[in-house]
Amino acid sequence: MTPLADRLDEINRSLDPAWDALYDGFVADLRAAGAAAGSPAVGDGLEPFALPDSRGRYVSSRDLLAEGPVVLSFYRGGWCPYCRTEMAAWSESASEVRRLGACFVAVTGETGGGAEALRQRLDLGGLILVDVDHGLALRMGLAVRVSDRVRAAYLGIGRDLARHYGSDAWFIPVPATYVVDRHGIVRFAEADVDFRRRAEPEAVLQVLRDIGG
User: Fold this and answer.
1) What b/e sequence results for 53-76 when a residue is b if at least 16 CB atoms lie within 10 Å of its CB, and e otherwise?
2) Which of 1, 15, 17, 66 is the residue whose CA sits 20 to 30 A from 186?
3) Where would I find the Thioredoxin domain in this sequence (predicted)?
4) Interatomic CA distance for residues 209 and 203, integer angstroms
5) What's the whole-model pTM score?
6) Domain boundaries 4-211, corresponding CATH code
7) 191-202: per-residue pLDDT in tens?
8) β-sheet bridge partners, residue 33
């Protein structure tokens, strides 16, 4: 299986230099502001939640953890090529996640059917939960506001995040991946404001192997 990092690098190499520079500036500003610095770390307890899945059925963290460990992955939306690539990699790893007694749960603020469309397109093998108005992401320190420059650039190519998220606040989640054991304790945590980088599925799978079901 091709490492996720290599697949993401392909996207980076195809990126217009102007967009690359724009993203570099946005990421630098987020780092300087300490964005996501307070997000969950290894050893922390998971923030309890109940969210609708992409088909409208409510799912609680308590019910998920009653079945075993959870891989929890926050992504920006199906409109993001980095996210589509990441979710495709997780689709390929879905059978191994299940074999290890865990479940894969993706979380996005994308509304209006976008989450379900991506789940069906990728045959994801897990749940996608819809974090309306980024409420869970905000509580976990994973929501940031899009800069004015990035917002203008997105609107210039017809990418209206207000439409994707059903809100004109222009918040966006920081991509993050966690492994949470059945006791609700975070055993792996990776949150990076540079959305061009994501946790490697194989590293997550190894944590699941180490902790067992």
Assistant:
1) bbeeeeeebeebbeebbbbbbbbb
2) 1
3) 40-213
4) 10
5) 0.95
6) 3.40.30.10
7) 999 999 999 999
8) none
